[in-house]
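User: I'll paste a sequence; please echo it back and then give the predicted structure.

Assistant: Echoing your sequence first, then the prediction.
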Amino acid sequence: MALLGKHKRAKMYWRFTQLFKGIGKREIVLDETQKYVVKITKTIINKPDTEFFESATDCVIYIHWDHITIKVNYEDSKIIMMNGKYYYYFSLPVENVNEIVRRVRKVSSARSLQWESQFTKNTITNLESILGEVRGDK
């Protein structure tokens, strides 16, 4: 048996991997209400005055903005949306709920870094004023 050249082996490997490329992936099809729920949730998450709370024991994330509260249960892949008068229950595919959870954690992390930066800046300002007092500059 003749040995194959490098190019031929690479081409055969590429063809082989292309055969199994789509296996295990499923197309997520959302109905109209689910699309709106995902869109509303993502929009509220990105607002700067949105508050988040994640319960470590219940696998629940609470998202609160204005008078709207969204409860994301990522164990059951359910979202409850409350607008002050009514509760709306939605069941979403796991992939969409996981994407929402990742987005909440990413935004929370970015806000945490921003607050940490502000805290450090304020600390340095306060320490400079203390140093001025110690030196007697007042």
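Residues 9 and 15 are 10 Å apart (CA to CA). The helical segments are 6-19, 32-46, 94-135.
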